[in-house]
Design goal:
This protein is of the alpha+beta class. It has three domains: about 5-100, 2-Layer Sandwich (Dna Ligase, domain 1), CATH 3.30.1490.170; about 125-240, Elongation Factor Tu (Ef-tu), domain 3 (Beta Barrel); about 255-405, Rossmann fold, CATH 3.40.50. Helix content is about 20%, strand content about 25%. Helix 7 runs parallel beside helix 9 (about 370-385).
């Protein structure tokens, strides 16, 4: 366990190491680990920790592991004060630094990504054309799900991975009014499936259910419209929208993806960007070298959407891409019941928990809302082993825990 006072003596042997900084931290829990430290957890929830320059990164990671959040970082000046706040160290132990060293310091921010939003709106949609409409469910599977590609070459619609577009179906509703738009996650990279910056693709399952009163089979308006769309037909598109599911620009990141059914759509875009040869050639400034893990919940093997693509990437990049299926009607969980995605997460909860504590790990959840509770339950159990309250910790990493469910 790192001891702040001991590390100060070690760091003072170098000019850069002798620089001291005050971390103001909130949310640090009182537990077995913090009990061993030589500073109190205050009732306000905030503590001030003195850190030498050489230990800054390690200390940030340690604070995150303990559920804390760094509110501010300030250098300690030569008179023992940090921008008006009294230092926790005796004045005689503080080194003298030039005035320019005493400027307030903030945590480094990731480079900003240009995210286009609402280029086309419902009152003035882009009118493109359907280029292709392909069935994704193999023989023997359940239902129908299509990969649909639209031509964007006649407009200015552009997007990034993780965004959605709106589709306005033709026709009117039962009141004679035009149908409202529906949002769909984009299943292609920003360059499109042909990597020519001229297309956008969706993954659409036709909604089908029994009317609770009449027992009549009801089909979704927009999903049926899209699944039956003929190549060459016009299509009204709005957007793009969404900033919650964007990939971090860090090429060394850990990306954990949890999907059910058509929730695979944004993850297909991520994985193509990471691993497809022509995509990597088109993105010299983004060459993924990290680790990605897709946990994919589906009903049967023929319902594994994009199966050939996924398994090809896994075979080519076994050290960077891990693929785990949860096939509910074919596999059994530990209790002998159906294998759902939350059961797979429970099986690997300790491993996922260890990864989530790393600052470079981002988790993405997309698909049916019902899987969220099971995932949280699995993570709660893993976090408890470390004496951590999962819900509190989850709130502290909301910038790395991304959810888009329906």
């Amino acid at each position: 366990m790192y001891n702040p006072s001991a590390a100060i003596g070690e760091a003072a042997n170098t000019p850069s190491g002798s620089r001291l900084f005050i971390y103001e931290v909130e949310g640090l829990r009182q537990n077995q680990e913090t009990d061993k430290m030589d500073y109190p957890i205050r009732r306000s929830g905030n503590v001030f920790i003195t850190v030498p320059y050489s230990r800054m990164n390690q200390e940030m990671k340690r604070i995150t592991r303990m559920g804390g959040r760094i509110v501010s970082i300030r250098p300690v000046s030569s008179n023992g004060f940090d921008n008006g706040k009294s230092s926790t160290l005796p004045t005689e132990s503080l080194p003298t630094q030039p005035a320019e060293e005493n400027k307030p310091m903030t945590q480094a921010k990731e480079k900003k990504v240009d995210v286009p939003v609402n280029i086309y709106r419902p009152n003035a949609p882009f009118v493109g054309k359907c280029l292709a409409n392909e069935e994704l469910v193999q023989e023997g599977g359940i239902g129908t799900c299509h990969h649909i590609t639209f031509d964007l070459s006649e407009g200015d619609l552009h997007y990034v991975e993780g965004q959605s577009i709106g589709i306005i179906p033709e026709g009117t509703d039962k009141n004679g009014k035009p149908h409202k738009l529906r949002l769909y996650s984009i299943a292609s990279t920003r360059h499109g499936d042909a990597v020519d910056d001229k297309t956008v693709s969706l993954c659409v399952r036709q909604l089908e259910y029994k009317h609770p009163e009449t027992g009549e089979t009801v089909y979704g308006v927009c999903s049926s419209y899209l699944c039956n769309l003929e190549p060459g037909a016009d299509i009204k598109i709005t957007g793009p929208v969404g900033k919650e599911m964007l990939l971090p620009p860090d090429e060394d990141a850990n990306i954990i993806m949890m999907a059910t059914g058509t929730g695979i759509a944004p993850f297909r875009a991520y994985l193509w960007r990471m691993f497809k040869d022509n995509e990597r050639q088109a993105n010299p400034d983004y060459q993924f070298k990290g680790f990605s893990w897709l946990i994919f919940g589906i009903a049967t093997t023929p319902n594994i959407l994009y199966k050939a693509e996924l398994e090809e990437m896994q075979a080519k990049y076994p050290d960077n891409f891990r693929l785990t299926y949860a096939i509910s009607r074919e596999q059994k969980n530990a209790e002998g019941g159906k294998m759902y995605i939350q059961n797979r997460v429970a099986e690997h909860a300790d491993e996922i928990w260890n990864m989530v504590q790393q600052d470079k790990t981002h988790v993405y959840i997309c698909g049916l809302k019902g899987m969220e509770d099971g995932i949280d339950e699995a993570m709660t159990g893993a976090a408890q082993k470390a004496g951590v309250n999962w819900k509190e910790y989850q709130r502290s990493i909301k910038h790395r825990w991304h959810v888009e469910t329906y």
